[in-house]
UniProtKB/TrEMBL annotation:
Heme binds at residues 44, 116. Pfam families: Bac_globin. InterPro entries: Globin-like_sf, Globin/Proto, Hemoglobin_trunc. This is Globin. Keywords: Heme, Iron, Metal-binding, Transport. It comes from Flavobacterium laiguense. One of its GO terms (molecular function) is metal ion binding. SUPFAM superfamilies: Globin-like.
Length: 130
């Protein structure tokens, strides 16, 4: 059976719930998420539903800046690589089509941008201009 593409909020919820279930079980990044999010998982998942609904379905339900909560996380390139592996595997296991491919592309772009920005802010903290 061929997977269908991402088409509605139920698909987004399935993607997000499955992805974060996989993340929480992961030895490398699971504890980072659990420590940061704590008992606020329902709130985090709701925010992620709105974020991906806005990004993939062009239904503007998310507002805010996704980067600031990640700025101080104790993560390196290997953590973003693992995040992307889990995300790609999750998308591929559930969906196939243009929006599924778009989700993976957006995820990759976000992982790379967050990694670069975190590295930049760490460097700036060690070497301020003034």
């Amino acid at each position: 059976m061929t997977n269908k593409d991402i088409t509605n909020i139920e698909d987004i919820k399935l993607l997000v719930d499955t992805f974060y279930s996989n993340v929480r079980k992961d030895e490398l990044i699971g504890s980072i998420f659990d420590e940061k999010i704590g008992d606020r998982w329902p709130e985090h998942l709701e925010k992620m539903y709105r974020f991906w609904q806005t990004v993939l379905l062009d239904e503007h339900t998310y507002s805010g800046s996704p980067f600031p909560p990640h700025k101080q996380l104790p993560v390196e390139k290997e953590h973003f690589t693992r995040w992307m592996e889990i995300f790609t595997n999750t998308v591929d296991s559930l969906f196939a089509g243009p929006l599924a491919e778009e989700a993976k592309l957006r995820g990759q772009n976000m992982a790379e941008m967050f990694n670069h920005k975190i590295e930049y802010f760490r460097h700036e903290a060690k070497h301020p201009l003034l």
